[in-house]
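[worker-b] picked up task from shared queue
[worker-b] task type: protein-ligand structure
[worker-b] ligand name resolved to manganese (II) ion; SMILES cross-checked against name lookup, match
[worker-b] sequence length check passed
[worker-b] input payload:
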Amino acid sequence: MADWPQIPPMDDATYARMKAETNRWYWYGIPTFFRAPWNENPAEADIALVGVPHSSGNGSTERDQHLAPRFMRHVSCWYKRAHFKYQLNPWTECRINDLGDTPLPEAMVNDVSVQHIEAFYKRLDAAGTRPVSVGGDHSITGPILKAIAGKDARISKGRKAALVHFDAHTDSYDHIPHWLGAVRSAAHWASYAAIEGHIDTSKSVQVGIRGNVVTLDWRKSSDRLGYRVITIDEYRELGVQKTIEAIRERVGDSPVYITFDMDVLDPSHAPAVSNLEPGYTGLMTGEAIALLQGLRGLDVIGGDVVCIIPTKDNPNNITSMNGMVLMFEQICLIADYLRGQKK
Ligand SMILES: [Mn+2]
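[worker-b] inference finished, payload out:
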């Protein structure tokens, strides 16, 4: 038998030390986003990581998008990383906490729940805390923008947001009177948030739109609202650098909100999304990361990653894992901007 050393009794100090040593492994303890501290007080965070377990705003396919925050907490436990390219450790640079989930006591009723989401994010706005959120379906982005951008918003300093919207679809379908009964749905948010004064469409871009269309006039509402639409075909012609230049020129010095619908990625990189666009190759995850990094230095007031259906994912949770890295890039864009403001 091996001659193991004698283990001393586990007094409180020993227990604390052993726990701290084990805590860096993803399979130990209670999962939070990126192992950030769980702290529901917005005033104690610069960047708030928030789950929005909401899935009554879409319903065109499977509806398990409300399970994504739970899976993202699970997978992101091993990704408390520093950003190599930015030479930035966001976790020590800023106060970044897991603020928990938006409470949704009427989760089955979309048009009530979006009001609850807006009210929750107004608490963050009042504290000046920038949110990086995990949906939920894409209907969550409308109420988040209503809370943190526009004339009454603190985080945007009363300005409308420039929207940088990655998606296979435009989500501005205001010619559809309702979506399975939901008026403020995942198909409508990019329209009403602009009409109601929270998005400046003249500064905004919708990137990665692709695939065949349900009706041939699909693009009319985005054009009429004033969005710049960069389809996947136009993106392929421009390439990463020229697309970044086009986005930055359009955004100017506006406060920026980033929303990332995982269906903009190719189904091979993100198989577990609600509205798959097969056939027409989507963004590779690395291209999406390069596009996000092209926004470095902009006043990013918040961001989200939406539309993951974890119950459709492969056993490695690859869709959640790619979503995790895209969330990390959003966190680092904000932390890097806030570091620049301190100098
Ligand atoms: Mn969308």
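[worker-b] attaching auto-annotations
[worker-b] The CA atoms of residues 127 and 254 lie 20 Å apart.
[worker-b] releasing lock
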